[in-house]
Design a protein that fits this description.
The protein is an alpha+beta fold and 88 residues long. The chain is 26% helix and 35% strand. The two termini are 18 Å apart.
């Protein structure tokens, strides 16, 4: 199992979350801030099987709004290994 951590601009968060849920992914949102100009951002976590990583990345990428600054980033994505997972 893998954990995708995606740091998104606030303006994209709801659209990305809804697209992921529609695609059958479970999403947890954490409010966050950071970066050079301290613009609002959200961090989402998505637990997936390894075979679902590319599909989740595609959903995220295709639901990000364009950015005014071509050298800026629209999202930062991390994939972590999950040694154990349980729901209680």
């Amino acid at each position: 199992m893998k954990l995708i951590i995606a740091i998104l601009r606030d303006q994209d968060t709801e659209t990305v979350i809804q697209a992921l849920i529609t695609g059958g992914y479970r999403v947890t949102r954490i409010a966050s801030t950071g970066g050079f100009i301290k613009r609002g951002s959200s961090t989402i976590m998505v637990g997936v099987d390894e075979s679902q990583i590319d599909g989740a990345f595609q959903v995220i990428r295709s639901n990000l709004s364009p950015i005014e600054n071509p050298s800026g980033s629209r999202a930062t994505l991390f994939v972590l290994n999950v040694a154990n997972f349980s729901q209680v």
